[in-house]
Specification:
Blueprint (H helix, E strand, L loop, with lengths): L1 E3 L7 H4 L3 H18 L3 E5 L17 H16 L4 E6 L16 H6 L2 E6 L29 H10 L7 E5 L6 E2 L14 E4 L2 E2 L5 H5 L2 E5 L7 H21 L2
Parallel strand pairs: 1-2, 2-3, 3-4, 4-5
Antiparallel strand pairs: 6-9, 7-8, 7-9
Helix pairs in contact: 2-3
InterPro entries: Chitinase_II/V-like_cat, GH, Glyco_hydro18_cat, Glycosyl_Hydrlase_18
Keywords: Hydrolase
Organism: Rhodotorula graminis (strain WP1)
C-alpha cells in the first residue's frame, strides 16, 4: 500500500506530528492492510523537513517525527509486513536544514528505501542532459546527479547499502530545437532520432521544425556523403574480386 506521492504528501507533516496523530494514522493503515490483504506500506513522503509540492512542512521536527511514525507502524504491523520509503536522491534534511549525517535508525526499522533516481534533467531545464546519469564526472556543475553519487550519499549518512534500491525511469524527455546552431558540424552534433528512425542531415530549415530526441554523440553526415561512401565501398570490393587469384 503506497501512501503520499509528489502531490499527495501535503498532510504528512501533521499526520506524524504527535503521538496521538501517529497512532490514529497507523491504526488506519493497519486496518487497510488487513481489509485488503496488502503485504506492507510504502511511504512516499519525498521531502520531509522541506517543501516539495507542498508548503506543509516543519523543518525542526519532521525528520524525528517521521522516524517515530515508522517505529509506531513497525510495532503495530509486526515484522512479517514490509515497510519501505521513497526518498530524494540525497539524504533527508535534518532539523538544521542540511542533509542528515546519521539515518541509521531509519535503517533499523525500514526494510528498504527506493531512491528517486530520475528527473535530474527535465523538459524545463536550461540545458539538455540525461534523465539521471550513470556518471557525473564530466557533467556541468548544475547537473551533478548520478546513480553512484546518490547511493554514496545515503551510505555516508549511515543507511545500510543492502537496503537501498534505485527507482529507474522508463521514459525520457524531448526538446524542440529552435536554432540551427546545434547542427553546425564543427560542434559534432548528436545523432538525431525521430520515432526511432535514424535521420540523415537534411536542410536546417526542415530540422528546425522537428521535435527531436537527442541521443549519443556522433557526427551527422549528409545523404550525399553516405551515398558516396557506399559507392566507394562497392568499388573497392569489386577491385578485390578482380585481382583475387
Amino acid at each position: 500500500l503506497q501512501i503520499g506521492g509528489w502531490s499527495g504528501s501535503n498532510t504528512f507533516s501533521g499526520l506524524v506530528a504527535t503521538d496521538t496523530s501517529r497512532a490514529d494514522f497507523v491504526a488506519t493503515l493497519d486496518t487497510a492492510l488487513t481489509d485488503y490483504g496488502f503485504d506492507g506500506v510504502d511511504a512516499d513522503w519525498e521531502y520531509p523537513s522541506r517543501a516539495g509540492a507542498t508548503e506543509d512542512f516543519d523543518t525542526a521536527n519532521d525528520l524525528k517525527n517521521y522516524l517515530e511514525f515508522f517505529k509506531t507502524l513497525r510495532t503495530k504491523i509486526g515484522s512479517d509486513k514490509l515497510i519501505s520509503s521513497d526518498t530524494s536522491s540525497g539524504p533527508w534534511v535534518g532539523a538544521d536544514g542540511s542533509a542528515s549525517t546519521d539515518l541509521s535508525e531509519f535503517g533499523d526499522v525500514l526494510d528498504f528505501i527506493t531512491i528517486m533516481t530520475y528527473d535530474a534533467v527535465t523538459y524545463s531545464a536550461a540545458a539538455t542532459g540525461p534523465n539521471f546519469a550513470l556518471d557525473s564526472s564530466c557533467a556541468p556543475s548544475t547537473q551533478q546527479f548520478s546513480y553512484p553519487a546518490a547511493v554514496k550519499s545515503w551510505t555516508a549518512a549511515k543507511f545500510p547499502a543492502n537496503k537501498i534500491m534505485l527507482g529507474l525511469a522508463s521514459y525520457g524527455y524531448a526538446w524542440k530545437v529552435r536554432s540551427a546552431l546545434p547542427f553546425s558540424l564543427s560542434l559534432r552534433p548528436p545523432t538525431l532520432v525521430l520515432a526511432r528512425i535514424m535521420l540523415p542531415c537534411e536542410t536546417r530549415a526542415e530540422l528546425d521544425s522537428l521535435t527531436l530526441v537527442l541521443m549519443g554523440s556522433s557526427t551527422c553526415r549528409s545523404t550525399t556523403s553516405r551515398t558516396a561512401a557506399a559507392s566507394t565501398a562497392r568499388r573497392r570490393a569489386s577491385t578485390r574480386r578482380r585481382v583475387a587469384p
